[in-house]
Amino acid sequence: MDLSRSGKESGDIAIPVREVAKSSKSGKGIAPPPAASTIRLGQQPPPAAGWRRGVGIIDLILRICAITATLAAAAVMGTTDQNLPFFTQFFQFQASYDDFPTFTFFLAGNAITCAYLVLSLPFSIVCIVRPHVIGARMLLLIFDTLALALTISAASAAAAIVYLAHNGNPGTNWPALCQQFNEFCPRVSGAVVGSFLAVLILVVLVILSAAALRRI
């Protein structure tokens, strides 16, 4: 009567389970009376599972943000081109991203990272639906680290060229390119900023994946 009354008050279903104790090997002695325990249905999941599911939701949102950042950086860099309005009979003053191998590497690096992040979305969803799965989270951690290394190297190399374009190098008589190409430099600078934003997001993703694996 107490079990049914407490079950009605809490809203859960109480199922009595009896445990049968084995007698001793010698056959002597009386088995203790069966003990009754209660298993409640509809219990909440353990706190660790809920925490990992929350990490998975944040992971998915950050991946979408990183896809946007890398895609914008690659698109802006790939469409950067400027022709100066004055030219001579033999020369035309033009600046394009493919004139600089570093900018070409920047475009390829961000495009590869963007494609990887798109392909990683199903694995991120699996980590939300089944937060106890270790394999998917481990794969994300490994490839996120590789994508981070690629993106930060491409962004850093492009940032060095952008610095030279803005300031030049008087020691080697390199003029500041941005003094003439006032549309080219802001676009490549914005692309580099977007790539560094993706680097920051990837750092957070790596930290979240490592923290989730420690809690499993």
Give the helix/strand layout.
Layout: H1 2-10, E1 14-19, E2 35-40, H2 47-78, E3 81-87, E4 92-96, H3 101-129, H4 135-167, H5 184-215
Antiparallel strand pairs: 1-2, 3-4
Summarize the entry for a quick read:
The protein is mainly alpha-helical and 216 residues long. The chain is built from 5 helices and 4 strands.
Please describe what this structure looks like.
The protein is mainly alpha-helical and 216 residues long. The protein folds into two domains: 2-43; 49-213. It is 62% helix and 11% strand. It has helices at residues 2-10, 47-78, 101-129, 135-167, 184-215, and strands at residues 14-19, 35-40, 81-87, 92-96. It has a two-stranded antiparallel ribbon with strand order 1-2. Strands 3-4 form a two-stranded antiparallel sheet. Strand 3 and strand 4 (92-96) form a beta hairpin. Helix 4 (135-167) runs antiparallel to helix 5. The radius of gyration is 31 Å and the shape is elongated. The protein starts with a helix and ends with a helix.
The rounded distance between the terminal residues' Cα atoms is: 40 Å
Order of helices and strands: HEEHEEHHH
Radius of gyration: 31 Å
Count of helical stretches: 5
Quaternary structure state of the chains depicted: single chain
Please report the total strand number as a whole number.
Answer: 4
